[in-house]
Design brief:
With 361 residues, this protein is of the alpha/beta class. The chain contains 16 helices and 10 strands. Helix 7 crosses helix 8 and helix 8 runs parallel beside helix 16.
Length: 361
């Protein structure tokens, strides 16, 4: 969830390479029978899947999958809207609940009720009447903290939104720009959900007065500015608080070199906003039948259980298991802030405009 960056991007920040799967040819240039054998998945840059998992789908289905990354979530959605009459592919993955209304209002998707949709946990469903999107994954946008910093300074880490405006945390927090970054927007929406339409602006005035730093995107915030990340340590970063994800502590363990015995970072669980990502069959898709098969595949337990260690997100289907490192170092928030996508649609642009005036000017 991005700039849209999930924790495939954490892996990149730690010097690893994220996998993107490609078919043998470009479906846009295929003709005749060969066209029907290719599926193009359009996504943000953080899509990732294990080679063996994708290869098994391709063998079983007879399709070849090409992945077309299009920048962060906002960029990818906007480009998909601009090209909807002549789409770049068949399926779009990565529109989240903060941007969903923009895609639906622009008729980006056609209706398709995926096989296996009855296994999706009901709290993640959206567009239930028309079935234009299918929930695929979820994650929590939360403030992360550098355990070593707070231990060395004998300071209790913040636990809530209210804590972040206290004097003892002055000049410690870095967040992403709400107008350019999905985590930044999610954090803004979390404060709007917490303090309401009449209170979030006052909260941000206090947060600004308390020295919050704003940068363009997640990679800069997490890997350059946050002292608790592997990248931040190398960059000699000086901000021990960052807006990131609840799943970044397990990423620090799994990809640590050397691998630490415990997570060097923690999560302020009272600052979390729940994000859900969806996939949809693009309007005017060249290979609608292949696109449907791919969406069905994204709901299988095989794919759902492969996601956590590739994109550092949680499954949305009942019974899908997550790695032990997730339950130990990055459990989902028990009571995250949430917001109805319709309310996000009604307010998002005005809120971002007000936030920009309050915080950046």
């Amino acid at each position: 969830m991005s700039t849209t960056k999930k924790f495939a991007a954490v892996a990149v920040g730690l010097g690893l390479v994220t996998l993107s799967a490609c078919g043998s040819s470009d479906s846009g240039s295929d003709t005749g029978e060969s066209k029907s054998k290719n599926i193009t998945l359009v996504s943000h840059d953080s899509w990732a899947v294990s080679k063996g998992v994708l290869a098994a789908f391709e063998k079983q289905s007879g399709y070849q999958v090409k992945v077309l990354p299009n920048g962060d979530a906002g960029q990818a959605v906007n480009k998909a809207i601009l090209t909807k009459d002549n789409p770049q592919g068949d399926v779009f993955f990565g529109v989240d609940n903060t941007l969903l209304s923009r895609a639906l209002d622009n008729d980006l998707f056609q209706s398709y009720e995926a096989k296996g949709a009855d296994s999706i946990k009901p709290e993640y469903l959206a567009d239930k009447d028309e079935h234009r999107v299918t929930p695929i994954d979820t994650g929590d946008i939360c403030v992360n903290y550098d355990k070593a910093y707070f231990s060395e300074h004998k300071l209790t880490p913040p636990a809530s939104f209210d804590d972040l405006i206290k004097p003892e945390y002055k000049n410690l927090l870095v967040t992403e720009n709400a107008s350019t970054s999905s985590p930044g927007l999610g954090f803004l929406l979390g404060t709007a959900a917490k303090y309401g339409d009449g209170g979030w602006q006052g909260y941000w005035k206090k947060l600004k007065a308390n020295g919050v730093k704003v940068v363009d995107g997640w990679e800069q915030a997490y890997n350059d500015e946050f002292s608790g990340s592997a990248g931040g340590k190398k960059a000699k970063a000086d901000r021990p608080l960052v807006v990131s994800y609840a799943s970044s502590p397990p990423a620090e363990v799994i990809y640590g070199d050397p691998k630490p015995a415990t997570a060097p970072t923690g999560v302020a669980t009272g600052t979390c906003f729940r994000q859900v990502e969806y996939a949809g069959l693009l309007s005017n898709a060249r290979n609608a039948e292949g696109g449907k098969a791919l969406i069905d595949f994204l709901l299988t337990k095989t794919f759902q259980e492969d996601m956590p260690l590739n994109m550092f997100v949680y499954p949305v289907v009942e019974g899908a298991q997550v790695p032990e490192e997730f339950t130990e170092y990055g459990p989902q928030a028990e009571d995250p802030e949430t917001m109805d996508p319709a309310k996000i649609a009604d307010n998002r642009d005005d809120w971002v405009k007000s936030w920009t005036s309050l915080v950046l000017k």
